[in-house]
Design a protein that fits this description.
By secondary structure, this protein is an alpha/beta fold. It is built from 13 helices and eight strands.
Length: 261
């Protein structure tokens, strides 16, 4: 059983797309997956066909129950089914934005998500946590609960510049809270290998980090399909199963499974 955190403090780099597609890819290999929406924007919840505003219980209710130690809401109480019987979802909505404040004074505040997930760890082969674009307490909780972190990175220089800050945060979590946390790898998203800029960013990143951090062989291409799929409430592998983007995420799934084995 493995907990994978998908993190990058920059928004719009394909974290949610990657979470949904990787879950679908793993389920095609008969793996049972729990997706955890850990972002108040609730993009993952929306992209799997749920309206966040209409939900009575979300990940925030479990978080507050753990902080207050009242046992009122367990993670199984908020878990939703998806169209794929092999994938379940712990949804989020805007209420989760309050969690940053709630966590400040919480006992063992960095370990709340780990405690939330503990009762269901044996029910799944993989738990995938889709983080918000921030390096605050919610992301630190995700890193503390995870076995590995996958970093989606847009292939442009501005996105690459923030990578060092994220890696510093990961190293601090490894040193202080979760020594077994591993960096699974950097995944280049929104690539256009026909442009010199895209190729240069990948090369510079490999030179700067490649000796320390795995960089996935798979790169995710730019495609309008990635914007259409969430609007249809599906992952790219379900919405456009024969597209170049779906093929890329299937290759990524093979790499993840190989890494885990």
């Amino acid at each position: 059983m493995s907990v994978i955190c998908i993190a990058n403090q920059k928004g719009g780099v394909g974290k949610t797309t990657t979470a949904a597609a990787l879950a679908q890819g793993l389920s095609e290999h008969r793996k049972r997956v729990l997706l955890v929406d850990w972002d108040p924007q609730a993009s993952l919840t929306v992209s799997l066909g749920y309206n966040p505003d209409g939900l009575k219980l979300t990940s925030y209710d479990v978080l507050t129950s753990v902080i207050r130690n009242n046992g009122r809401v367990a993670i199984s109480d908020v878990t939703l089914k998806t169209d794929n019987p092999g994938i379940d979802l712990v949804p989020a909505n805007i209420e989760l934005s309050q969690a940053q404040l709630d966590l400040v004074n919480a006992f063992t505040r960095e370990l709340v998500l780990k405690e939330m997930l503990q009762p269901v760890r044996r029910d799944y082969d993989y738990i995938i946590v889709d983080c918000l674009p921030s390096l605050g307490l919610l992301t630190v909780n995700a890193l503390s609960a995870a076995d590995s972190v996958l970093i989606p990175l847009q292939s442009d220089f501005l996105a690459m510049k923030g990578l060092a800050l994220l890696l510093t945060t990961i190293m601090r979590v490894q040193e202080k809270i979760n020594p077994s946390l591993e960096i699974m790898g950097i995944l280049f998203t929104m690539t256009n290998n026909r442009t010199l800029h895209s190729r240069e960013v990948i090369e510079v990143t490999k030179r700067a980090f490649g000796d320390r951090i795995r960089i996935f062989d798979t790169t995710i291409p730019t495609s309008v399909r990635f914007k259409e799929a969430p609007a249809a409430g599906m992952s790219i592998l379900t919405y456009a199963p024969k597209s170049e983007g779906a093929d890329a995420y299937r290759l990524l799934t093979e790499e993840v499974l190989h890494e885990e084995s």
